[in-house]
Design brief:
With 373 residues, this protein is α/β, with parallel strands linked by helices. The protein is 33% helix and 21% strand.
Length: 373
């Protein structure tokens, strides 16, 4: 039986590597010089292969913090790792900190470590994290073979490095959080998805959990997006540090029409956003702009399919803050817009009459000129 049996590559966002005995053969703190041990070429090749598929790499090593200082002195090696943790703390705590720094779920991590003890400690305290020995890395890479790689995936590692710069600047900024967000000059554009944006929308459906309303599968999303009366919207964002790329996707169902022909209801079977923009108002701005576009198109009601999970509390709070409440409508497995696992889904809705929520004041929101409702 393979160590990756039952393994879902779409759920993996970061592989965390041990150092001594994993990244290199020797024990760094026992080196007679300040030079680091020579990394194993096969491990570096694996890290680069994962990066090409949009999978991040980090470090969790129980060693002296000075080892990380020595790593910083080797830019070409250090650049491969995001949010590295080198200390004497438990490996499970290092993984928690990595997940927090990257803004991803702990369960989106995979640990590669030569120590059975360290793997067992993580398995006991973080049961959602897959742990592998170094000899399991070829099987890990094989699990990603044949998976579609989008342009967004290939840019993911670079964008997370940019995110480290944002975080550093935020820590240095002298002012309030809102003042810093204003200074970042964030701009969100919303429009109907173009053909080359669809793979990224499918990826968001598969890989996002914190800001995912329904868990609609990529296959079901692709099927519904190509059916009559449905349209797929995407959101892009930039700031003074660079482009975030496509950070949001929403499937809109406009098949419920009033007597006059205009859509009486805009239903959203899926609203999904990248966890990279959590806490910056982008999710709210995207949702609110969709509501505005629905009203401009003549709709009287706006609905979102919600499947509550342990991970998407943030999305549930957002929908409630937007004034959406449970309706009499239900999302069932036979509904055209229902997720495949819709038994525990609900439909939340609100009227589009009266005042609608406004986007955060620090975020500029506009429609893309090449699209229209």
């Amino acid at each position: 039986m393979s160590v990756t049996d039952g393994f879902d590559p779409d759920g993996v966002k970061c592989v965390v590597w041990d150092l001594d005995g994993t990244l290199w053969d020797e024990i760094a703190v026992e080196s007679a010089t300040d030079e680091l041990p020579t990394p194993r070429p096969a491990v570096l090749a694996a890290i680069d292969a994962l990066a090409a598929r949009g999978v991040l790499s980090s470090i969790a090593s129980r060693s002296a913090p000075s080892v990380l200082d020595r790593l910083d002195a080797v830019p070409r090696l250090r650049a491969r790792f995001l949010a590295p943790q080198v200390s004497w703390q438990d490996k499970s705590e290092s993984l928690r900190r990595i997940a927090k720094d990257l803004g991803i779920a702990v369960d989106a991590l995979v640990l590669v470590d030569d120590s059975p003890y360290e793997r067992a400690e993580v398995e006991a305290l973080l049961p959602g994290v897959r742990t592998l020995a170094p000899e399991d890395v070829p099987a890990l890479l094989a699990a990603f073979e044949g998976r579609e790689v989008t342009a967004e995936s290939r840019e993911r590692v670079r964008r997370y490095r940019t995110e480290e710069t944002r975080r550093t600047e935020g820590e240095r900024f002298e002012g309030s959080r809102e003042e810093f967000l204003r200074w970042c000059d964030m701009r969100l554009t919303v429009g109907a998805a173009t053909a080359d944006e669809i793979p990224r929308a499918l990826e968001l459906a598969a890989r996002t959990h914190r800001l995912n309303s329904s868990g609609l599968t990529p296959d079901r999303l692709r099927e519904l997006a190509s059916s009559d009366g449905h349209e797929l919207y995407t959101a892009r964002m930039t700031d003074r540090f660079g482009e975030y790329g496509i950070i949001g996707a929403a499937l809109v169902d406009r098949t419920q029409r009033a007597d006059g022909g205009a859509p009486a209801t805009w239903s959203v079977p899926l609203l999904a956003l990248s966890c990279r923009v959590a806490g910056r108002g982008a999710a709210a701005a995207f949702l609110f702009r969709l509501m505005e576009r629905a009203r401009e198109a003549g709709a009287e009601e706006f609905r979102v399919t919600l499947r509550p999970t342990d991970a998407n509390l943030e999305m549930r709070i957002l929908l409630r803050q937007a004034g959406l409440r449970r309706t009499d409508a239900t999302a069932t497995a036979t509904s055209p817009a229902a997720p495949a696992t819709a038994a525990d889904s609900a439909v939340l809705g609100r009227t589009l009459q009266g005042d609608l929520p406004g986007s955060p004041v620090w975020l500029h929101v506009s429609d893309r000129e090449d699209t229209e409702a």
